[in-house]
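ARCHIVE CARD
Drawer: 12
Card no.: 0347
Subject: one protein chain, sequence and derived structure
Cross-reference: see card 0346
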Amino acid sequence: MRIFLLTLLTMAAFAANSVLTRYGVTQGGLSPMQFATLRVVTGAIALAILVVSRSGHWRSILAFHPKGAISLTLYLLGFSLAYQSLDAGIGALILFGFVQLTIFASVVFTGDKIGGQRLLGAIIAFAGLVYLCFPSDQFDINLVGVFTMAAAGIGWGAYTILGRTAEDPLLRTGQNFFWAALIVASVALLQFEARASATLFGVISAILSGVVMSAMGYALWYAILPKLQATVAGVAQLSVPVIATIGGFIFLGEAVQIQTIIASVIVLTGIAVSLSQSR
């Protein structure tokens, strides 16, 4: 029961990132770059404190892993940019759909054996994403938001793949956050813009996203992952788009369209089919 509750808490933290980001870049007055900068910088500080308090050595946080830092940066920037135009639940659905497609593509690229069930699941999930992006009289979606969230999903998928080889996931996450913070902050300085419309709650939403939902959420996730089977860990993440949709409805007043519900069922079914294949 304890592991179940901790897993549910972690998934809620992941979903809260969608709600907080959507709020910050629409109602909180922050630009996507400002939100991403606040999020990654405060997250990096929190992770550095965790790593140093555990090891007693601050220099370990400075190690540079280019692929991890770049993929994390792609996720952070794409995530913030996409939520200018996408609802919280739709964004989470696209994100996790492309995360799974990226992981699937990596299996194809490396030449590993692909079972028929996993291939079928990938096809179903992709069909759901295509259906979600198909405009209709009752439903329209911003394709720029779709593309930027797809980039975020590719970045997070790549980051997930790279993280599998990390001997110390928490330390590697802290290192990648440190360098991603430097990259994002440098880009933000080059594109500096004063936003008089930024609100206190907008700033707080970015800090909460960085410190609590990202740094603490990732730390908790890595702590419980060894206690979960790989398939269980994957299926658990299917709850994130659902929780994000509920959060967007309750806290942001976002409408839930029938096309979104149907696409969600198709995508999540495809991912579940793929993950249920024995490993």
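Annotation on reverse: The first helix runs from residue 2 to 26. The chain has eleven helices and no strands.
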